[in-house]
C-alpha cells in the first residue's frame, strides 16, 4: 500500500518568481523572529538534495534525484537519477544544517520528521528535540517494557522482513530481542513520538513544513493542530498539498529557500562535520564474567550518542596496554579489554579506533591516562572529522549529562 500520486495535476511542480520568493521568505523570517514556539515538520523532500530520492515526484521532476520511488514503480520508469547517494553515506543538506542552527539559537523549539534516513540525528539534532515518526533506519530498540533501551548504529538496521522487525541481536541490558523501528503502512506510530509531535504542534504559533506531501496520516494531522490552535502554517514544497488553503505556500527548491531564509535571519549555516563520542571506563571483570576465578580490572570502550546511550561506531578497535608488546583487537561492541599483567592505575592505554568509513574516515588513535579513570565511572571523548579535507580536526574530553 502507498499513497502515490495518480494524476498529472497531483504531480505538477510549481515555482514562485524571484520577487514572490523574496517577499514570502521575508515574511517567514519575520514570523520566526516573532515566534514563541516554532516547530518544523519535515518529509522526504528535504533529503533529495543529499541524493536520496523521494516518493511522489513525477517522471518530469526538476529534482536531480529523478522520479520518486512510488512513481518509478507505477510507471516502470528506468530513468537514471543525476544525483544518487546511499543513505548511510549521504551528507546532511543545507536544510538539515539550517535546522540545527535554528535549534541552537533557540528559534526552533522542536522538530517533527517523517524521514527514516537518520540525517537529522547525524546533522546534530539531539534525540530530545526530535520526533522521528516513521522510525530511523540506524536504530535498534528493545521492546521489553522494563527496559526500552535503544541502540544507534553507524549502519543500516534490517529486520527479518517488513512484518517481522526482529534483527537477530540481543539487548545488552536485559537480553531480550532487538527490533528495527521502521514504521510500515498499517502499523501504529511509536507512542512517545506521536504524543510529542501532537503536543508541540498544538503549542506551536508557527509550523514550517519542509518537503512533505502531507498525505500520510496520522503524521499529516500535526500541522493541522497548529492551525486549529491559531498558529501560522508555512509549506515549502514543489507539489500541491491538502493543507495549502490557509497556509503560506513557498514554491521552490528547499535548500535554496533555506539558504535565503538564513541570510534574512542573519544566521550562518554550519558546515556538516562527522561527530563521534566515545565512552571509556574501568570495570571489574569479576562482576561481568561469571566464571572468573580472580578479580581483574579492565576497560569498557563504546561509541555513544549525545546522551551517553550506545552508538555502534567501530569496525574494530585495537587496545595497547602499558608495557604490552602487541595490541588486542576487538570487533564487537561494547569492547571489554583487560590484562592480568598490567597495573591499571598508571601509564597510558593506546586505543586505535577503526570506524565504518562511510566518509573515508581514517583510524583515530586515542591515548588515555589510566590514572584519570575511576572504577565504574565513564569518561567521554568527543572527536570530529572533516569529510571534505578527510581528516580528524579536533578531539577533547567532554561531560555527558
Q: How would you concisely characterize the structure shown here?
A:
The chain is α/β, with parallel strands linked by helices and 401 residues long.
Description of the structure:
- There is one protein chain.
- By secondary structure, the protein is of the alpha/beta class.
- The chain has 2 domains: 8-137 and 182-264, TPP-binding domain (Rossmann fold); 274-398, Immunoglobulin-like (Sandwich).
- Helix content is 20%, strand content 27%.
- It contains 9 helices and 20 strands.
- The chain has a 6-stranded parallel sheet with strand order 3-2-1-8-9-10, sandwiched between helices. A 5-stranded mixed sheet has the order 6-7-4-5-13, with no helix packed on it.
- The relative contact order is 0.13.
- The mean pLDDT is 91.
Residue windows where pLDDT falls under 50 for at least 5 positions = none
Order of helices and strands, N to C? HHEHHEHEEEEEHEHEEHEHEEEEEEEEE
Structural class: alpha/beta
CATH superfamily of the largest domain: TPP-binding domain
Major β-sheet profile: 6 strands, parallel
Tell me, briefly, the overall form. Answer: elongated
Oligomer classification: single chain
Number of distinct helices? 9
Give the terminus-to-terminus CA distance: 42 Å
Characteristic key phrases:
401 residues, alpha/beta, Rossmann fold, Immunoglobulin-like, 2 domains, six-stranded parallel β-sheet, five-stranded mixed β-sheet, 9 helices
Describe the protein's topology.
Layout: H1 8-11, H2 18-34, E1 38-42, H3 69-75, H4 94-104, E2 108-113, H5 119-123, E3 130-132, E4 139-142, E5 150-153, E6 166-170, E7 177-180, H6 191-203, E8 206-210, H7 221-228, E9 232-236, E10 248-250, H8 254-264, E11 274-284, H9 285-288, E12 297-304, E13 311-312, E14 314-320, E15 328-330, E16 335-338, E17 348-355, E18 364-369, E19 379-386, E20 391-398
Parallel strand pairs: 1-2, 1-8, 2-3, 5-13, 8-9, 9-10
Antiparallel strand pairs: 4-5, 4-7, 6-7, 11-12, 11-19, 12-16, 14-15, 14-17, 17-18, 19-20
